[in-house]
């Protein structure tokens, strides 16, 4: 069986976040390590690992909130440290009581917070 055959048959395509300024937020998420696919004043699309896209949709009346998705990184402590040194607002590392994962949050320029998990990948992805 090839690695491709061992991978799950389904994955996330798009994560959506409503923001006032998609261009400014795109620059922020690029600083985190996402790759810009399309950036403009109405909608910006950022690529993550595995083909997933973060779609930043311009909505002038958007209110900062906790994102309805989370992110995952390979080296949790090093990533948090690098982001903090770069001036990116990050919380202290904590343990999520629901599942035992190590987490911290990152706050984008509009005040939206995103949970960042330590990697808990199982098998080939």
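^ Assign residues to that structure.
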């Amino acid at each position: 069986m090839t690695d491709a055959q061992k991978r799950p048959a389904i994955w996330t395509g798009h994560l959506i976040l409503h923001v006032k300024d998609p261009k400014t937020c795109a620059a922020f998420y690029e600083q985190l390590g996402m790759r810009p696919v399309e950036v403009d004043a109405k909608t910006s699309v950022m690529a993550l690992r595995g083909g997933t896209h973060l779609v930043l949709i311009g909505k002038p009346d958007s209110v900062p909130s906790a994102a309805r998705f989370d992110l995952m990184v390979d080296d949790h402590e090093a990533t948090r440290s690098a982001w903090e040194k770069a001036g990116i607002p990050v919380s202290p590392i904590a343990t999520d009581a629901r599942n035992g994962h190590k987490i911290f949050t990152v706050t984008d320029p509009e005040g939206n917070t995103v949970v960042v998990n330590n990697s808990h990948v199982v098998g080939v992805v």
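The longest helix spans residues 22-32.
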